[in-house]
């Protein structure tokens, strides 16, 4: 016998094998509907309302970034892009050190007995 969790009764109830192996809220992996003529991702035809060229795509920046990150200038990879990277790094370090200091103070205050 198969069991499944009943959302109404909030307990296990008897069920068929198909119902027991399909949890509530999940659908079977195989689609039961046949593919229709209005496929979204099934064709390679361009959508009629969009322009022929993709204006939202820019040039490929990957080769330029590879040159920047592979340059042997002695800097760690997380500081290679200059001033913004330095500011992010310093802010992260300041927040980490400040948070550690705050936790130590909180532990010290919590360890002291309360006075009446």
Automatic annotation (TrEMBL):
It is found in: Mitochondrion inner membrane. One of its GO terms (biological process) is mitochondrial electron transport, cytochrome c to oxygen. GO terms for cellular component: mitochondrial inner membrane; respiratory chain complex IV. The chain crosses the membrane at residues 88-110. Keywords: Membrane, Mitochondrion, Mitochondrion inner membrane, Transit peptide, Transmembrane, Transmembrane helix. Gene3D superfamilies: Cytochrome c oxidase, subunit VIIa. Pfam families: COX7a. It is a single-pass membrane protein. Its main location: mitochondrion. Belongs to the cytochrome c oxidase VIIa family. This is Cytochrome c oxidase subunit 7A2-like, mitochondrial.
